[in-house]
Amino acid sequence: MEQPPTVQQLIANIQNERAAWETLIEQIDQERLTSPGVAGSWSVKDIIAHITWFEREMISLVKAHALVGSELWNLPTDERNAAIYEEIRGGGQPLLIDLLDEGFTSCWSVWEFSC
User: Taking 60 as the threshold, does the pLDDT of residue 43 lie above it?
Assistant: First the structure.
């Protein structure tokens, strides 16, 4: 039976995969990044920003050790997703990269503290 990874291996894997993810995003040109139709009317940017919103929300959950955070959690899933979409619209690739960095850095500091 394969041994589970050590904390150090898990951290290294997360860092490596995150670096690969950011490199991939940086290679997407602005037009393709913002073109709708990747998933319904959502663009790549919309999907990534949506993921980033959840990363930011996770920080509150981990810090509080409780289900706390945005009032959007009280909405049904489709309504919540639509509200998140409206909240994160606008901005281009630089803003998106900044959001990704901010979200991951914040998550990372919480994860490291919790380990």
Answer: yes
